[in-house]
UniProtKB/TrEMBL annotation:
Ligand binding (substrate): 28-31, 84-87, 97-100, 124
GO BP of this protein: D-ribose metabolic process; pentose-phosphate shunt, non-oxidative branch
Gene designation per UniProt: rpiA
Residues annotated as catalytic: 106 (proton acceptor)
Organism for this UniProt entry: Secundilactobacillus malefermentans
Similarity-based family: Belongs to the ribose 5-phosphate isomerase family.
Functional note: Catalyzes the reversible conversion of ribose-5-phosphate to ribulose 5-phosphate.
Name of the molecule in the record: Ribose-5-phosphate isomerase A
Upper classification of the organism: Bacteria, Bacillati, Bacillota, Bacilli, Lactobacillales
Length: 226
């Protein structure tokens, strides 16, 4: 199986955790796209009454096109389960997210969810975080100064661009990727980044996930994190 087939495998596996009547957080990314397709199938075939809260405009559009009811986070009083992808997951189930520039909404949805499941192909499982660049969502105003500050701190920051244009998040902010290499102490780094004015949110997801479904060549493996 290639990487896309593994993503499809875990996408399909994840929707087995969905029960009728649930309010679901729907993540963002290519793996989640497979999951939303599979969820749409279940909703159609089994006439499930579920509500989705999307972590990006693109996921909302896809879900609605498949007949899945979408509500805003503030329109629901709780979320039963959120299913999302990840860019890296370490030995302690700490993660990096934001490769799809959606980590701000993803984190807000995740922390309001009773349970979080991440779906990844096996290439995302690492011993130590940091090979994947760490995304930061930053306010455009004064962002060059934020970049310079991060550079002086040794984080090797880079604006995420699409040609000559900044990549814009759904909240119309910019993304700065940190190419800093191995992250020895994710908690300490998260605290440092939380203290930088202009940084809205970083892509470290610490102590968030409950279960990880890993797509392996011999089938999906479910790992219990907490
Ligand atoms: O955090 C994310 C988007 O902001 C995605 O979950 C992450 O980038 C994984 O994406 P993919 O499933 O396409 O590999």
């Amino acid at each position: 199986m290639d990487q896309n087939q593994l993503k499809e495998l875990v996408g399909k596996e994840a929707v087995k955790f969905v029960e009728d009547g649930m309010i679901l957080g729907l993540g963002t990314g290519s793996t989640v796209k497979y999951m939303v397709d599979a969820l749409g199938e279940r909703v159609k075939n089994e006439h499930l009454s579920i509500v989705g809260v999307a972590t990006s405009d693109r996921t909302a559009k896809q879900a609605e096109s498949l007949g899945i009811e979408i509500k805003q986070l503030d329109e629901v009083d709780h979320l039963d389960l959120t299913i999302d992808g990840a860019d890296e997951i370490d030995d302690h189930f700490q993660g990096i997210k934001g490769g799809g520039a959606a980590h701000l909404w993803e984190k807000i949805v995740a922390i309001n969810s009773t349970k979080n499941i991440w779906i990844v192909d096996e290439s995302k499982m690492v011993h130590t975080l940091g090979k994947f660049p760490l995304p930061l969502e930053v306010i455009p105003f004064g962002s060059t100064h934020v970049l310079e500050k991060l550079d002086k701190m040794g984080f090797r920051p880079e604006f995420r661009m699409n040609g000559d244009e900044h990549v814009l998040t759904d909240s119309k902010n910019y993304i700065i990727d940190l190419h800093m290499g191995e992250i020895e102490d994710p908690e300490k780094l998260a605290n440092t980044l939380n203290g930088i004015v202009g940084v809205v949110e970083h892509g470290l997801f610490l102590n968030v996930v409950n279960e990880v479904i890993v797509g392996r060549q011999d089938g999906p493996e479910v790992l219990h994190a907490r």
